[in-house]
Design a protein that fits this description.
Helix content is 38%, strand content 17%.
């Protein structure tokens, strides 16, 4: 005998992310950013993070990075506009550098016209402005041609890049396996020079977040990483003025 299905009454609320809803476009090959974002956003109540992965090549080169522009709108559309995102971030520092920050933002806004948009290189510039930094030491994992493009980008924006060092890797799989100790050694080595007032560790695949407190204590200077800057900028754009403890000096700063 078929039983009558009882209709249930219900109420609705604002759902997850009542304080802020953040959308993140993650590289298909990235092994790091979701883990680090969870550490930074985990303590934040009522902040929801939704991620979509964009196709990309495991080989890092100017050509493969620029190729991502083709898939950016479709990947952004995997983050449903109905969610009402406060901020959407494209999580590739070198990709945003090669495609162009303005173009990246325009491609995302085609799908999310009401959301504020950012990417790691734009977020880093905002972070350096908020901290009053001008002289930057740059650490990357990239091949030299990609690293030079990033150096030029920062210099064009008015920042003096006093030192540049790279692990010289074109394989994104290897980049995510560079040890935290290796990153710490690179940051403290290049950051110890008197001609810089901060270190920027570029690349969302590098596991830099965990070494920032130790590096800042050793150097007495801010250390900014791609994932840290992107999370900070997205939170600030979404109107969140606080942040996690033990994630670097940046989270004490506000947008200028």
């Amino acid at each position: 005998m078929t039983k009558v299905v009882e209709a249930l009454e219900f109420d609705t609320d604002q759902g997850l992310g009542a304080r802020a809803r953040l959308g993140l476009i993650v590289l298909q090959t990235d092994q790091t950013i979701e883990h680090e974002f969870a550490q930074m956003l985990g303590p934040e109540k009522d902040v929801a993070l939704y991620a979509a992965r964009i196709p990309n090549s495991m080989e890092v080169s100017p050509e493969t990075l620029r190729q991502m522009a083709i898939d950016l709108p479709n990947t952004a559309a995997l983050l449903p506009a109905q969610f009402g995102f406060d901020a959407v971030g494209y999580a590739c520092t070198s990709g945003a550098t090669m495609i162009g920050e303005d173009r990246v933002d325009n491609l995302i806004r085609e799908v999310h016209p009401q959301a504020k948009t950012t990417n790691p290189i734009s977020a880093t510039k905002a972070a350096m402005a908020a901290l009053g930094l001008k002289h930057i030491a740059l650490v990357t994992p990239y091949p030299v041609d990609v690293t030079v493009e990033m150096q030029t980008n920062l210099q064009t924006a008015g920042y003096e890049v006093t030192s540049v060092a790279t692990f010289g890797q074109s394989d994104d799989f290897t980049v995510a396996r560079i040890s935290a100790d290796s990153i710490l050694q690179a940051v403290t080595q290049i950051g110890a020079r008197d001609n810089c007032d901060a270190v920027f560790v570029s690349c969302t695949s590098l596991r830099a977040l965990q070494i920032i407190p130790q590096a800042e204590a050793a150097l007495g200077k801010p250390v900014i990483s791609s994932n840290q800057a992107l999370a900070w900028h997205m939170m600030r754009l979404a109107g969140i003025g606080d942040g996690p403890a033990n994630a670097g000096r940046l989270f004490a700063a506000q947008l200028t």
